[in-house]
Amino acid sequence: MIEPFLFARRTNWPLESNRLTVALEYLRNKEVPILDLTESNPTNCGFSYPGGDILSALAEGDNLEYKPVPRGSLKAREAVSRYYRERGSPVSPERIFLTASTSEAYSYLFRLLANPSDHVLFPHPSYPLFSFLGNLNDVRLETYPLIYDGKWNIDLKSARHLFCDDTRAFVLVNPNNPTGSFVRWGEVEELNVLCRDHNTALVCDEVFADFAFDANQDRVSLVDNDQVLTFVLGGISKTLGLPQMKLSWIIINGPRELVKKASSRLEVIADTYLSVNTPTQNALPLWLSHRKEIQERINERIRQNYSFLKEQAENARDCELLTTEGGWYAVLKIPDTYSEEEWALAFLNKDHVFVHPGYFFDFDNEAFIVVSLLASDDVFQDGIKRILGHISRGEL
Ligand SMILES: Cc1ncc(COP(=O)(O)O)c(C=O)c1O
Questions:
Q1: How far is the CA of 21 from the centre of ligand 1 (A)?
Q2: How many CA atoms lie within 13 A of 285 on its CB side?
Q3: How confident is the model at residue 219 (pLDDT cuts 50, 70, 90)?
């Protein structure tokens, strides 16, 4: 008898579509127009981009030559360095490693820091891709809670108990997806002590850092954190709203000797893949020179949608908009008379509005829904009015 083909256990994911995806596909096949409040691909949201410059930057003569540099070309790293200087945090190009995406940056770091089955601590609720990234890199993911008391905070008491000898990295998402919460200075101070005591690195995902709703002195970027080995992640999928161009970076900081050792190992990992393509690296300086105008348009959209949602939620029955400080998402607490999935299915089937249920993001309890603030204002306003109207009727 022929034995069944064996795949690696790490790929034993449940691959069946969930009920929401099946319902969405059914409606789309019937060409029912759907108001998609999960859309978070900025290139689908009607923003105008400086298209001429974005495309002409790809037509450089230098692109015909291949001069691989494991950390990424100096020209591109200098452009990233200028970006941080503009933000008030000088970073020398030697501290920058380019990658093709932030997800790839996570993989490099898990490969650098953790042996199979070592621990990495992640926030919850947070971004669903983390469980796959942990899986694919053979690390054990444990989650530490974020708690909400009118604003989101790291539950440091719980986080402290999760640290052990195998904890190789503590991941922060700053601001977090989908809670929109920034890391605060007091939290970093305490995490530095915990990480130093356990030889744990800090990994801080700051891909949404340029999208804050207001100025708040209490927020910090970890780019300047030199107390423990620290890696900050950023990239143009969010910073420039250009996810298709595939370019991200890792900024390394920390005690000098440790940074030196980590950098030389990270360089070997980067050299093994050399995954960032030459045209993108050559185009980066020109693309980043358009950062402010691109971000202005995105910031205007998310602020406008958030304030519309706030006003509507204040006047709606049985619905609370959780405080969001930044990022591209908003979270609504809705009545737990039905499950999140039942609500989301009802919004889809009856109102033709697609939202994400909170359990996609590992919320502790029900019922929450998550909406993207990137949708064009007419789609967003119509979609929000339909679901709030539905909730106020109290029935599925
Ligand atoms: C918090 C966070 N980090 C990273 C990513 C992935 O970024 P990239 O497109 O650079 O891989 C996302 C994508 O939505 C995200 O939400």
A1: 21
A2: 11
A3: confident
